[in-house]
């Protein structure tokens, strides 16, 4: 299903990437690569709707709810421990969306864009409260944002990079159409201070799935 995209006037001023953005987006795009990349800039704020989830620009009002989600062990295991001011910076990015279902905030999703024309692509990162895991909501949110990035932002390639042992994330992204590219050895430091491997996955525009049941997974007669 093609998500509805509502363009809305949005009052939050665009900010410059000058603070720490947590998650793999930061590791791969905002730090260390050089070049004109980042999570903020000239993007018009939008509301994106899928069958069950709505992605709307995150605001300062979301900080406490997102803090409680980030503090859940099922989430901090993959996103690390919050640093002072981190969430305030995260919601101030104009590429950060709160994920809602049934009017409740269940998580957040963010993208970052590589703006060098030779390497142009976008990367996605996401977390949901554990109570909403395994209901297809994570893959739906990624699909809705991926469609926006392809159709509205004109990207031909998207990336995402879960830890190699994050089975649920890898499966969720495969359902959207992402494919494994390769293992990035010792690319991410976990909350216990040790380095672990990340799996780089990417998706080309014509590989995005529509969310229909995969062939072979439909119930038999
Ligand atoms: C990753 C995340 C966004 C996925 O969202 P989700 O709504 O749970 O994902 P979905 O329900 O769409 O898909 C999860 C898939 O993994 C499968 N899965 C979940 N846990 C699993 C496990 N331990 N072993 C095997 N498969 C598992 C589910 O069965 C489902 O596959 P299926 O639909 O074929 O049955 C969510 O789990 C999350 O927020 N996790 C914590 C933070 C995190 O890991 N963020 C990603 C960092 S890259």
Q: Keywords, please?
A:
221 residues; alpha+beta; Aminopeptidase; 6 helices; 10 strands; 29% strand; globular; disordered C terminus; binds coenzyme A
Annotate the secondary structure layout:
Layout: E1 4-7, H1 24-30, E2 37-38, E3 46-49, E4 54-57, H2 63-70, H3 73-79, H4 86-92, E5 96-101, E6 104-114, E7 121-128, H5 137-151, E8 157-160, H6 167-176, E9 179-189, E10 195-204
Parallel strand pairs: 7-8
Antiparallel strand pairs: 1-3, 2-6, 3-4, 4-5, 5-6, 6-7, 8-10, 9-10
Bound molecules: coenzyme A (COA).
Structural commentary:
This protein has 221 residues and is α+β, with helices and mostly antiparallel strands. It has a single domain (4-207), classed as Aminopeptidase (3-Layer(aba) Sandwich). The chain is built from six helices and ten strands, in the order E-H-E-E-E-H-H-H-E-E-E-H-E-H-E-E. It has helices at 24-30, 63-70, 73-79, 86-92, 137-151, 167-176; strands at 4-7, 37-38, 46-49, 54-57, 96-101, 104-114, 121-128, 157-160, 179-189, 195-204. Strands 1, 2, 3, 4, 5, 6, 7, 8, 9 and 10 form a ten-stranded mixed β-sheet that branches. A hairpin with a 6-residue loop joins strand 6 and strand 7 (121-128). Helix 5 packs across helix 6. The radius of gyration is 16 Å and the shape is globular. The two termini are 25 Å apart. The relative contact order is 0.16. Mean pLDDT is 84; it is low at 7-23, 26-37 and 216-221. Bound molecules: coenzyme A.
